[in-house]
């Protein structure tokens, strides 16, 4: 897992830049087969070195998933639709994560652990064939999009017709870029617990069996999936009703982080394992409120460079996600099983304050004409 996370972190910036420079369709069609094949090969791995190397290479391929898909969706959706589409995208990601534990346990018991990697890799290869057939970088490139629909998308910038140089200096100097990275890092610090430590925590501290863990570990992830959908729909509804971009983004993110903090602290303190799982599930439901506004803001302020902006934001999350399991592991090895949950709650509260006072969804990285290049052909 550490090899995967390390490579995932390293690959963030190149992947977002590649999507902005060459177009998301081409990069997705290269990266997904790459990591799908390395996932299949992981099933043939033997020994620490080969498994670490394969997971590292797979992490490089998967690193661009969210920044590239953010750039892929950006031309197709208006600001009043971006929360919903990001909520749905991340709900599907959580659904996949919720399905994997019971399926992985069944495959491991029935056929051996190798088959977990075989199946996941093959699914990725099937998906990319469908994606390549359906998706285009811009609505203007799609044969089924007519002039009337193009007119409704005139405020959603397409991929420029020529390769565009990414303004790294402007992006890196933007306070807004720093703030959304910090806010998303606070979310990721807590979110990585559910990815890296939840199964071990349920077995070692809450004393669930492996079979029980395969089911119970999916419950918070299913709750998180619901949080993604609810927050996305709610955010866009606020945007349509008020027309206030900052307000609609903040009024999803801030209550989400505060609600997540409110439930994660008792989750670590309760004696009842069942109640602890319920609290963790409610906490992740609220924590997932961060995905829709965070990635929507990356689209809002990034424009034609939303791939790069999204990769920088996700880089902060990856760094936080690297430290989170280390802190959790260090504390639990010394018998402190409650402290990680209190720390997680404090980090979430800090993230809420960043969103409330610092992040500005109405301040683009670049002026709109330079960054976006509206659909001139449709005006």
How does the SSE layout of this entry go?
Elements: H1 2-10, H2 12-22, H3 24-42, H4 48-62, H5 65-73, H6 82-111, H7 114-134, H8 147-152, H9 168-172, H10 175-204, H11 210-216, H12 218-242, H13 245-269, H14 273-287, H15 291-302, H16 306-333, H17 339-357, H18 368-372
Helix pairs in contact: 1-4, 1-16, 2-3, 2-5, 2-16, 3-4, 3-5, 3-7, 5-16, 6-11, 6-12, 6-15, 10-15, 10-16, 10-17, 12-13, 12-14, 13-14, 13-15, 13-17, 15-16
Give structural notes.
With 379 residues, this protein is mainly alpha-helical. The longest helix is centred in the N-terminal third of the chain and has 30 residues, at 82-111. The protein is built from 18 helices and no strands. Mean pLDDT is 83; it is low at 156-161 and 369-379.
Q: How many individual helices?
A: 18
Compute the average pLDDT.
83
Q: What sequence of helices (H) and strands (E) makes up the elements?
A: HHHHHHHHHHHHHHHHHH
Helix content: over 70%
Strand elements, count: 0
- Shape by Cα distribution: globular
For the termini, the CA-CA separation is: 50 Å
Structural class computed from helices and strand pairing: mainly alpha
What composes the largest sheet? none
> Roughly how many Å is the radius of gyration?
21 Å
| Beta-strand proportion | under 5%
């Amino acid at each position: 897992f550490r090899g995967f996370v390390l490579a995932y972190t390293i690959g963030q910036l190149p992947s977002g830049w590649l999507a902005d420079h060459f177009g998301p369709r081409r990069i997705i069609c290269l990266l997904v087969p790459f990591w799908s094949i390395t996932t299949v090969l992981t099933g043939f791995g033997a020994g620490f070195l080969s498994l670490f190397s394969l997971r590292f290479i797979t992490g490089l391929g998967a690193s661009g998933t969210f920044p590239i898909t953010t750039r892929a969706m950006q031309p197709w959706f208006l600001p009043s639709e971006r929360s919903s589409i990001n909520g749905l995208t991340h709900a599907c990601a959580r659904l996949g994560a919720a399905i994997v534990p019971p399926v992985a346990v069944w495959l491991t018991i029935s056929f051996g652990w190798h088959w977990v990697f075989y199946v996941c890799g093959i699914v990725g290869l099937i998906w990319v064939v469908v994606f390549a057939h359906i998706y285009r970088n811009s609505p203007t490139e799609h044969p089924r999009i007519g002039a009337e629909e193009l007119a409704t998308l005139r405020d959603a910038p397409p991929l420029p017709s020529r390769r565009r140089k990414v303004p790294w200096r402007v992006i890196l100097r933007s306070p807004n870029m720093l703030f959304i990275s910090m806010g998303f890092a606070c979310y990721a610090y807590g979110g990585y617990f559910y990815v890296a430590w939840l199964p071990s925590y349920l077995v070692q501290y809450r004393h669930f069996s492996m079979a029980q863990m395969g089911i119970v570990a999916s419950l918070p992830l299913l709750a998180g999936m619901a949080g993604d959908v609810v927050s996305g729909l709610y955010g866009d509804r606020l945007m349509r009703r008020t027309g206030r971009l900052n307000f609609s983004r903040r009024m999803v993110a801030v209550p989400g982080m505060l609600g997540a903090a409110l439930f994660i602290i008792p989750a670590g303190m309760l004696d009842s394992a069942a109640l602890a799982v319920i609290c963790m599930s409610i906490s992740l439901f609220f924590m997932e409120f961060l995905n829709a506004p965070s990635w929507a803001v990356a689209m809002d302020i990034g424009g034609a460079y939303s791939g790069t902006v999204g990769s920088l934001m996700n880089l902060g999350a990856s760094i936080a996600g690297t430290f989170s399991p280390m802190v959790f592991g260090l504390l639990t090895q010394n018998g402190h099983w409650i402290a990680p949950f209190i720390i997680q709650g404090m980090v979430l509260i800090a993230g809420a304050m960043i969103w409330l006072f610092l992040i500005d969804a109405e301040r683009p990285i670049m002026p709109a004409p330079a960054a976006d290049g509206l659909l001139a052909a449709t005006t």
